[in-house]
Task: structure prediction
Amino acid sequence: MRIPARVREWWMAGALAGVIYGGLLVSAAMELPEGAPLAGQIALQPAWKTAMALMLARAAWFHQPRRERRWLVAALLCSALGDFLLCLPGLPHYFVGGLGAFLLAHLAYIVLLLPLAGDWRAPRLVGCGLVVGAAGTLLGRFWPNLGTLTVPVAVYVCALAAMACTALVARLPTPLAALGALCFAASDAMIGMARFLSPFDSYQLGIWWTYAAAQVLLVAGVTAGRDG
Result:
């Protein structure tokens, strides 16, 4: 995996930040009663949580194709904002704000990846079908519990599925972006299940680790082997 040197430095820093925050979550979970919420249990938690996306955005800044760089940085900055908002459950409308920020991130990823479409091999197309099917199934399960969030969640699920599919069919030197998009979908699916089907605290660690893998893999997938 050949990532340009200037990108690689900040990409590695971002990956390390994600691992450190994940380790802090694991440590907090071990010290608290089983199922206890982890929000607010780590000093300077919003800063720790947003560090990964911000460092990855800095890495993306050195990606050479200007059009791709602009949208990759935008996706990561919107993700950092979403991380910040979802880390503050005491904030009014924190969930809708986080949802909106990550919706913008997915739209930025779609704009980034759509012009790269061209991998129409059967496994990729089957993957797209599975993503769409899983998205529809989960949305159907969430539907009775959505209430006033029906429209925003439906729009979000559609955008998430579209982002994953554009990553799956993007013609890139490695499959890392596709794997990252699938990790993103898995992380968001757990958030949805936690919010609308079962207690959030059951998924906290899984949500972070799949999300961190998603962002790290997406940046690597877009930048690796593509010096410009």
Summary: The CA atoms of residues 165 and 201 lie 29 Å apart. The chain has one domain: 5-223. The mean pLDDT is 93. The radius of gyration is 17 Å.
